[in-house]
What does this fold into?
Amino acid sequence: MASFVDRVVLHATGGNGGNGCASIRREKFKPLAGPDGGAGGMGGSVILRVDGQVTTLLEFHHLPHRSAPSGTQGMGDYRQGANGEDMILSVPDGTVVKDTDGNVLADLVGMGAEYVVAEGGHGGLGNNALASKARKAPGFALLGEPGSEASVVLELKTIADVALVGYPSAGKSSLIAAISAARPKIADYPFTTLVPNLGVVQAGSSRYTVADVPGLIEGASEGKGLGLEFLRHIERCAVLVHVLDCATLDPGRDPLSDLEVIEQELAAYAPDLQSDGTRVPLNERPRVVVLNKIDVPEARDLAELVRPEFEARGVKVFEVSAASHEGLKQLTYVLAEYVERARKLAPKPSMARTIIRPKAADGSEFTVQRKESGGQTYFEIRGTKPERWVRQTDFANEEAIGYLADRLAVLGVEKQLFKAGAVAGDEVRIGPEHNAVIFDWEPTLVTGAELLGGPRGTDARFAESQSNRPTRGDKRREYTERMDAKAEARAELWTEREQGIWTDPEIDADAPVDSPSKD
It folds into this structure.
């Protein structure tokens, strides 16, 4: 069973908002004392929060689907529904949130850092909040808005100051165990390390963290071995330590060739870090060469032989033994100097500035576009307010639909439809293509209190439309019949003219020039 997971796909769903309540207060001698329906509660949101006690994404591997609780419905007597509690999901420090296309949405670094994955839906207003001078006792309430849904990729990038890289069985796990309190698995076979290991090193007054990742081999950047899966864990490290095995029994390997292969793999992985322009590629960061296992006589001789060649390349070289602890103290102090220098050069974290985005001067809160699909023309309306209002409308209630029409008219939707070339009877869609509300548009010609005098839950405009207003099919049928009647009338007139029935010279003079001549 897996004990460490550093990449998962999370499917999050925010809680639904509670429906508003349509209620009328009853008092003695006042059977209809006014609306008192309360609003529905807000739905809970799914939030990621950095927790220092969490070191893996294993929990999301077993439970990838998370849903926040919904808000409850409003009630009479002005009682508002309860809000759904936010679902807080704890993630390790250094978790990167991406969408399914690979775009970075958030980089959670630091205790308490948060990111809202899926927002909860707004609660619907009760009829008490919808009352006005024109509509004193609304017979409807707004529905709760559904919570948003999102699928995101969580990637853990370990936060450490120093990274130990090298071939499998080069002694990285033994080295981190010797200089820190970490106790990774140590064995004499390749790929013993299957998960990254972190250790804290104290060198004088300096304290820093060291990361040990699975061994790299040639072709790791192309997916060979385990290196590619864990290269992300050294992206945040300021110093790279190349641990080279001087006691290897492989005849085709030596410290010089091992270093060249590892640096080639780091260079192949480096372009992925240049997308934001702020991180230094792995092959350009400060690096230190550690010649390990010098407690073996042959290894010590080989280390003394290759050391001048490494120093000629301008890198610091240390001959150490993780088994006898020879040379480790000097190594830890030099690494502390590198870390302190990197911390001074790192940009200081600044407080997040509050960004105020004023409303656009032209009031453009929605868009109207003319589109075609399957040879049919329709008009698409997109915008936060229109889409939210549609989701919160109870289309089984005529008064609620009339209220929606009035809100859209006040927002300016009808004016924009006229500008886009829409005419009565055209198809209009509000919302995304896969989940749009479709209706035949009829301009709102009259609105006001004179249309709100009917029973609660009804709208006089709908009664008028059901009795007098033709549907789209009626309009098409009427147009076809009118065109057919005109064609028949023209044919009858030409037949009479050919028979010589026409005697009025003025009518003959007005006949079209391109009309057929009489033989």
